[in-house]
Amino acid sequence: MSHVKQTELRKRLSGVLSDLYGGEVPAYNMLVEVAQEVNQEHQRQHPEKAGQFGSLERVTAERHGAIRVGSPDELAQAARVFGAVGMYAVNFYDLRDAKPNPIPVVSTAFRPTDRQELAENPFRVFTSMLVPEDRRFFTQELEHRLKNYISQRTLFSEELLTLADSAVNGNGLPEEQAQRFLDLAAASFALSSEPVDRAWYDELEDISSVAADIGGVSSTHINHLTPRVLDIDELYSRMELRGISMIDSIQGPPKWQGPDVLLRQTSFRALSEPRLFKESDGSVSEGELRVRFGEVEARGMALTREGRALYDASMAEVDSEVARSGRTRSDVASEVWAQRFPRTDIEFLKADLGFFTFALTSDAPASELPTSLIDLVTSGHVQVEPIVYEDFLPRSAAGIFASNLSGDGNMRDAQGEAPRDAMWMSGRIGTPVLDSFDIYAQERSSSLAQVCQQLGMHVDDLILPWKQD
């Protein structure tokens, strides 16, 4: 019997969930179709950029999903399921202080971390966990009822979790077990047909639509599944021309003339979906919920800590100027970016604002080459390639959520905010929550070490922009 390795299992899981979500939310299929059209045209029109942020094959296959769970136990089980396909918790995101709408969740993203694994299939799942202990959102009495409700449900079957553990231990599963794993995983993430308790759901929705979507139902489901596009502005226009209602703006960095950085996201608005409701008298009636939407993303260069600090400061400057002047955010952001950010990859490298990999393009002996990395690059002896940003932006995620919420929710001015951080989450899921800056830095270091090895020199002999005094 053939053995399905974790990489192949991840590819299959991404495909299975894409088919599942497309059947549940048909507009998603249109989003994928338009994204593929835009990507193919963009590559034809801009051949000089082809492959800069991944091959067309990778971009076409790329998806990120989102699910929501209610407790640390459920999050730990999700970690086991995603661990089966080589996806690990990267970064801790706290959306409880997000603007414009605080959301009572903390999140992480499960994804591959190795460069080759990302090239094979960069499936990611942004996973949010409810925080019932936070008194800004939930009273103690509601916390107890929420925890009791969540503790009585089962999101992932024991059979699925056992298969997941076997896949981790054996780097995959035999074919028959692999198919069983995929069937059980798909069932776990499918939208349930079980009636929703209307009174309970409405009580939670008064606090937060996200809280209701997590704690007001008996299962989890795919909240959105996101394709990647190379020109998100063009996709936005084409979706509207097809009659799809998009949210008001594209979240993240503005469109400008310099290098693409971090992540830009948008979505079509959440659609009303028919659901069954259990009424207070025990009867079952038909109704609708509007919680799932179609997100799409464009990815750019991963920024260093210094680059990310510049990004955050620039966003704050945009907020201040928009509030002061009343001008459009896109106009202000374009001006701020032009003033604050370099316009070329080389300038990003010189200022140590972005992460890059390196490749030797010269056969000249090391003794004839400059000892500065910047000089090696500008003289053409070493080629640079920006590292793709593989992660998320809390502000952008919150902006997407807020644009699709059915209400503003209700947040109290209270103490007892239930502190949460990456260390706390690591302890609950039993595996480290990795820091993406460390991952990108390691990828840069490995690439540079290979170049130095080819040159017969040591990395310490090079003058590096991130090690300048």
TrEMBL record:
One of its GO terms (molecular function) is dioxygenase activity. InterPro entries: HGLS, YdcJ_bac-like. Keywords: Dioxygenase, Iron, Oxidoreductase. It comes from the Bacteria. It is an enzyme of class 1 (oxidoreductase). The keyword Oxidoreductase applies. Its EC number is 1.13.11.93. Pfam families: HGLS. Its cofactor is Fe(2+). Belongs to the 2-oxoadipate dioxygenase/decarboxylase family. PANTHER family: 2-OXOADIPATE DIOXYGENASE_DECARBOXYLASE (PTHR39479:SF2), PTHR39479. This is 2-oxoadipate dioxygenase/decarboxylase. It comes from Paeniglutamicibacter gangotriensis Lz1y. The lineage of its organism: Bacteria, Bacillati, Actinomycetota, Actinomycetes, Micrococcales.
